[in-house]
Amino acid sequence: MKNKNTNSGADTLLAEHMETDSGGMLRRHFLKASALVGGGLMLRFSWLSGLKPMDKMVNPNLTEQGSQLNGYIQITPDNIVKILCPNPEFGQNVMTSLPMIVAEELDVDWKNVVVEMGPHDNVKLGPQFTGGSNSVRMYWTPLRNAGASARQMLIEAAAKAWSVPASEITAKEGVLSHISGKTATYGEMAAAAANVAVPKDVQLKSAKDFTIVRNSKKNAEGPKIVTGKPLFGLDYWQEGMKIAMIEHPPAFGLKLKSFDASQALKMPGIVDVFSLKLYEDGYEQAGFDTRTFNDLLVVVGNSTWEVMNARKKLKTAWEPIGETKYNVVGWRGDKREVVVPAGLESTSAHLEKMAAYAKGAAKELRKDGDPETAFKNAAQVIERTYHAPFLAHNCMEPINFFAHVTDEQALLVGPLQGPGWIEPSLSKILNLPPEKIEIQMTRMGGGFGRRAYGHYMTEAALISRKVKSPVKLIYTREDDMTYGIYRPMYTATYRAALDANKNLIGFHVKGGGIPEHPIHANRFPAGAVDNYLAEGWEIPSNITIGAFRAPRSNFNAAAEQSFLDEVAEAMGKDPIDFRLELLQRAKTNPVGQNNEYDADRYAGVLELLKEKSGWGKPENSHKKRGVAAYFCHNSYAGHVVDMVIRDGEPYVEHVTSAMDCGIVVNPDAAINMVQGAVVDGIGNALYGALTHKDGAPEQSNFHNYRIIRHHEAPRNIDVHFVQNDIDPTGLGEPPFPPVFGAVANALYKATGNRKYMQPFTVEPPNTQG
Amino acid sequence: MAKYTLKVNGKTFKVDVDASTPLLWVLRDHLHLPGTKYGCGMALCGACTVHLNGAATRSCVLPVSSVGKSEITTIEGLSEQGDHPVQKAWLEHDVAQCGYCQSGQIMNAAALLKTTPNPTDEEIENFMSGNICRCGTYLRIKEAIKTASGQ
Ligand code: FES
Ligand code: FES
After folding, report:
1. pLDDT value at position A118?
2. Do the chains contact at B100 and A446, CB–CB below 8 Å?
3. Phi–psi pair at A678, nearest 5 degrees
4. CATH number given to A539-751
């Protein structure tokens, strides 16, 4: 990381830019052209120039970075177009979809596009965070801009070379053509284009003219994946590299008391065994510094198997951790004290405690009208309570990181969702300036939120510094699962008040969690019911939690969408029609302020779902169907799930999915993503759970943590997108939450029983590979 | 420690490792063939699938001492140009999301098609149920296997 310069004028430039980016004409502030060595055009641009204020969440230093030229397009004389991708890839396909956006406006033959993974550069590229279903949404405008600018410069270069007006030249699929019939490839004009002034204004294509965007393109890394190329962090290897593993306490609430490594050190290939503190006392944690255990017992050796074996010879004693306190500084600079309670927690005790808290006081999160009176006057009150357990992310590639740290510099290589979040911490902990720290991002074997918490990179760095050697830290599957940063445990009680005519006159949700509540107070059906109350309560815990694909939404959609199904039934209404009625109300005469969702788009997804699934059609009347729809990450998604009972277990045969995420950049990849979210949702709803006994996780590998398998996945998942020209919104997370609700509702149809506690199937797995 | 001579992807390798070392770690740590993945180490996920004399085998639970003269094929050696029908079908259906499980899926699928050239849905499901895909690409895996089998 070099050139850490700040630009005090950036604030103004950014403001100006945002004012002009609503129409098709864009003023260019952050573009710079230069000649490539060997001929050709290099156009540098800012990925961050079109960001909206809310994107400060992923990019807190926005004003500093808005003017950095951090992306590039290169066009070489042989007509190859190279585009850099700044964000880490974990299967969401950004390495393909982001360059597609540039290529569209540039109007180039996709066959000639080469995609490169960008280096990590916190100053220039921002935190490069993959998460929050944000990548395409954030970069849509800056990328289009850059592509359109390069295209215009090529046209102007050709106009000059041919001494004709630029207006007589068209650029298409990498070829410039004059009305006279004269043509040149972009490559042939690239060197000349480097001397053309960067255009002030560019005309972006109208969505109807897209030829690359909205046309499926294959995964740019597909050929490497199917031939087993070393793309992942775990595959990284360097001469002289040692392998390190961490022996962690067997239970949350315990820490290392003492150890005897004499036997382990005698094992072949073992280099060192030592204990290490991750964060020193008084260390102020950043928002993504979350870690489970602070005292690490480390085994370092020459090979993975030798280290695994030596771990078995360690003699360890553990002791309870008392209540601990530390400060966390969030990305906004807000400081808060976190108090972690002592104790060995168990799932049974959690459930009891949650039941007690659910009856107690809670924080009011939103109130419309007079819910107390509505419930008092109700002819009928429906009340149901829903539960969901902790979930482990279980990325297929277990946690790992490579580090080579010396007194002068640090090289780190591995899978991380937001390198920029962790680098400042690492810089502080290693006492090395950021420019001496190089982080290389590998492809990630799954993320699902887990790899936003980069403590394992810091662990690897400290281990490397201690043993003065390049080191790869590897978590075994057991380490990965029992040393987790889990999806919190949640519960929520929903109440609906109906009047004598079965109209919904009041709605109340009171949700809690360990250690955080799940409630999104301003989401549907808020805005659609006159008397509405949302409340939340929290139980502190020493079990570490964090983001998990669509945080909180993944529980809310399960609970709320099951509840609405039951309310519709009590009202004698079709579940889709009931939701549409509520949305109609939210649209024409919304209740309250700050309703987060767009009732029209929400209804659009339900309408599409109804049509595509043949909902209510006589030919489908025999099917055991459940429906759910949900809004999160700026997008709308819904599913109709068809379930059967097969060998005594629920099996989802067929799913119809509908989604509104605006313009779909890469349709086939988007379908893949939705299908994957459906399978993931079914699996977690039916089988997913991480439980505790006396602080110890009761699941440690795939024999007792059940993951959905091939024969349990639906044979058909039909995915449909609402067609519109809205700028793209989130895709990776939104289709996941409503799967839970649809599964719950189908389960009721298939079995006649409603399930209120996840996972809905708790039979032990019998799936030895 | 003991010396072993292994035949991997048509080449001969000599390694000096503990007899209990699983083939997976010999491939990854000693032969630097990281295409074969570690997912569970307990024969529960299939990420480490290789071919032993053509049959799908979980290399994470196969001690190197029991490999003997068997011919080992890993994803790196499934085809020279990455054009095995299963690999081609995988690209055609753009199966991968994160991609981590896919070498194991491909090796398992290739072994299935050797013994069952025209598998039914059930046969695919039974044979592939030991391979976990956390990203949920099962549907496309099934379609790709059918394409590779010429169905
Ligand atoms: S790593 Fe061998 S089956 Fe999972
Ligand atoms: S593609 Fe990610 S685990 Fe299969």
Report:
1. 64
2. yes
3. -65, -45
4. 3.30.365.10
% of chain A exceeding 90 in pLDDT: 73
Q: Which pLDDT does position A2 carry in this prediction?
A: 27
Separation of A232 CA from ligand 2 center, angstroms?
A: 12
Choosing among 1.10.150.290, 3.30.870.10, 3.90.1150.180, 3.30.365.10, the CATH entry for A237-247+253-326+399-474 is 3.30.365.10
Q: What is the pLDDT of residue A63?
A: 38
Whether the pLDDT of residue A436 is over 60: the answer is yes
Q: How do A624-632 and A692-693 pair as beta strands? A: unpaired
Rounded to the nearest 10 degrees, how much is the dihedral formed by the CA atoms of A207, A212, A217, A221?
Answer: -110
- Both structure tokens of A397: 């590639």
Nearest CA in chain A to B94: A218
Angstrom distance (rounded) from CA A118 to CA A102: 15
pLDDT surpassing 70 at residue B86 = yes
Asked whether the beta carbons of A680 and A549 are under 8 A apart, the reply is yes
Tokens linked to A110? 């996709």
Q: Which residues in chain B are contacts of A238 at CB distance < 8 A?
A: none
Is A486 within 8 Å of A690 (Cβ atoms)? yes
**A308-327: per-residue pLDDT in tens?**
999 999 999 999 999 999 99
More confident residue, B76 or A70: B76
- Which of A514, A381, A491, A449 has the alpha carbon at shortest distance from A680? A449
Least reliable range by pLDDT among A46-50, A237-241, A502-506: A46-50
Strands (E) in A569-691, as ranges, are: 624-632, 635-646, 649-660
CB B116 within 8 A of CB B123: yes
Q: What is the DSSP string of A675-718?
A: HHHHHHHHHHHHH--B-EETTEES--STTTS----GGGS-SEEE
User: Any chain A CB within 8 A of the CB of B30?
Assistant: yes
What is the model's pTM? 0.92
Mutation target among B29, B100, B125, B142 for the A interface, most CBs of A within 10 A: B100
pLDDT at res. A134: 63
Q: Within an 8 Å CB–CB cutoff, is residue A91 touching chain B?
A: yes
Does residue A48 register a pLDDT over 70? Answer: no
Residue B21 phi, psi (nearest 5)? -60, 125
As a CATH number, domain B85-148 is 1.10.150.120
Please check whether residue B63 touches A, CB under 8 A: no
Q: Which CATH architecture has domain A2-211?
A: 2-Layer Sandwich (3.30)
| CATH topology (fold) of B2-77 | Ubiquitin-like (UB roll) (3.10.20)
- Mean of all residue pLDDT scores within chain A: 88
Chain B (107-126) residues lying within 8 Å, Cβ to Cβ, of chain A:
121, 124-126
Beta pairing partners, B3: B16
Q: Does the interface ipTM go beyond 0.90?
A: yes
CA A120 to centroid of ligand 2, rounded, Å: 24
Going by pLDDT thresholds of 50, 70 and 90, the confidence category of residue A88 is low
Residue B47 Cβ contacting ligand 1 at under 6 Å? yes
Which among B76, B94, B126 is the nearest to A227, CB-wise?
B76
